[in-house]
Backbone:
């Protein structure tokens, strides 16, 4: 499993890539692996507001439903629409093609609270113990 | 502490993901549910279903006793034949759905659901009608070899002529030198076999089947694929689609309830229910809008809850969202429409004929 160094991570297993005041958001390699074959995603629409720590959508595997939690607060400015027809992309490429939404956030301090790759890896180790 | 089948270590070594199911640590998937599902539909898959229980009726009263406890008619089941049906309470509620393997008139093996092993044994033992009832669940392992190439794979390991075993028939024979009850039964909708053997033989039998199936592309399969395969066939799952509070008539299993076969547990209650009319019925449906229905989602008619989804998934074979739900009789006819409440959103659904999936010829 890989956890790119240029990303920030949440305890709910989302990642985000910060570019200025934009955050690209997806779920981690660990999350997609735990879920198994992803067969459905439900994402917000452009213009919707999301709040840090609150649900912005769901991913579903054959067996299970899992909520998606936003790493930052702000407005959705882009949605990865092709995922609705090809949700398996999230399994195949969680960090690039499998991105979910882009959020324009107001409070940069929110991103400071997120984990870096090393901290997330440590968190995973503790979680599986 | 959850129980383990004799194959637990084999599963772990093969990289299976283990989950707890009905008090058992079972593999939910190896390769992935979709890959495993596809392997069974296209080629052949191997399942460890040793968590299922076996209760055996023996003695001069065995046949008569089980007839009193079983909704289907064992009088129409010959020696060497298997029959599906329900065990019901006096009030008609389903204790379990089971397959009876009639080895002889005085020797009938009842295959019961894992979660109900003890409950069923207690129930059957408590209403034995003079038969000898034995809980042999721990002594038996059970492997299911399922898929269009199952017979070809199994034939490599046995001198029993498999073409002579019809659907829902079985025989005793050796597989890879191990004594088995070889049954042409399953829970996937594909051709295939279920092999009952002594518990301690399971690892040997598993390895022999995996080796024999290599050229055919055999895939070890977990409970995830078992569930999606059965749901595409609209096979009921006890505990999800029915329980002690539902009758076989409500669960859409009237085809295994033989009200005219003579007296049996639950007959009078179901006779009355049939005459009075059902208040709910289990139907198969597909969603005509995006979403995946799941157990306990509400069925809505004009915005009001009138029923509940009992099973649902996105069908790996069909690509559509399918499910089973209890609905009022007025919504049970094919083509009826209702909505499913998916996390607060009403998704349109339509009642369809089941099975959802038709086996490839």
Residues:
């Amino acid at each position: 499993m890989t956890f790119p160094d240029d990303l920030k991570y949440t305890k709910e297993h989302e990642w985000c890539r910060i570019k200025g005041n934009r955050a690209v958001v997806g779920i981690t390699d660990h999350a997609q692996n735990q879920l198994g074959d992803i067969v459905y995603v439900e994402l917000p629409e452009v213009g919707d507001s999301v709040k840090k720590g609150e649900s912005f959508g769901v991913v579903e595997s054959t067996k299970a439903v899992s909520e998606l939690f936003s790493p930052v607060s702000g407005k959705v400015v882009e949605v990865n629409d092709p995922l609705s027809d090809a949700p398996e992309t999230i399994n195949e490429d969680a960090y690039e093609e499998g991105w979910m939404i882009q959020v324009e956030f107001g409070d940069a301090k929110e991103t400071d609270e997120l984990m870096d790759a090393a901290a997330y890896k440590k968190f995973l180790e503790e979680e599986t113990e | 502490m959850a129980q383990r089948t004799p194959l637990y270590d084999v599963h772990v070594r093969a990289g299976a993901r283990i989950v707890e199911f009905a008090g058992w640590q079972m593999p939910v998937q190896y390769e992935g549910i979709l890959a495993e599902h596809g392997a069974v539909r296209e080629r052949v898959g191997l399942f460890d279903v040793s968590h299922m229980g076996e209760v055996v009726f023996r003695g001069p009263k065995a046949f008569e006793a089980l007839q009193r406890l079983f909704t289907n008619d064992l009088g129409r089941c010959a020696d060497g034949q298997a029959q599906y049906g329900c065990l019901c309470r006096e009030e008609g509620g389903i204790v379990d759905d089971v397959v009876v393997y009639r080895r002889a008139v005085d020797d009938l093996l009842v295959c019961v659901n894992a979660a109900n092993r003890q409950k069923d044994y207690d129930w059957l033992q408590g209403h034995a009608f003079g038969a000898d009832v034995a809980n042999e669940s721990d002594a038996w392992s059970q492997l299911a070899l399922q898929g269009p190439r199952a017979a070809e794979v199994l034939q490599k390991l046995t001198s029993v002529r498999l073409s002579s075993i019809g659907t829902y028939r079985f025989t005793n024979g050796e597989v890879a030198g191990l004594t088995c009850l070889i049954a042409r039964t399953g829970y996937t909708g594909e051709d295939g076999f279920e092999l009952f053997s002594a518990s301690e033989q399971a690892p040997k039998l598993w390895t022999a089947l995996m080796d024999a199936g290599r050229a055919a592309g055999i895939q070890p399969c977990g409970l995830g694929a078992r569930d999606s395969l059965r749901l595409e066939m609209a096979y009921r799952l006890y505990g999800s689609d029915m329980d002690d509070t539902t009758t076989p008539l409500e669960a859409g299993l009237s085809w295994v309830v033989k009200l005219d076969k003579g007296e049996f547990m639950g007959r009078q209650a179901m006779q009355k229910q049939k005459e009075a009319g059902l208040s709910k019925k289990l139907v198969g449906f597909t969603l005509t809008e995006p979403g995946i229905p799941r157990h306990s989602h509400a069925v809505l008619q004009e915005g009001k809850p009138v029923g509940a989804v009992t099973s649902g998934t996105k069908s790996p074979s069909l690509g559509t969202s399918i499910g089973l739900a209890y609905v009022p009789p007025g919504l049970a006819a094919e083509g009826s429409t209702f909505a499913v409440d998916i996390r607060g959103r009403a998704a349109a659904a339509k009642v369809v004929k089941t099975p959802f999936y038709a086996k490839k010829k």
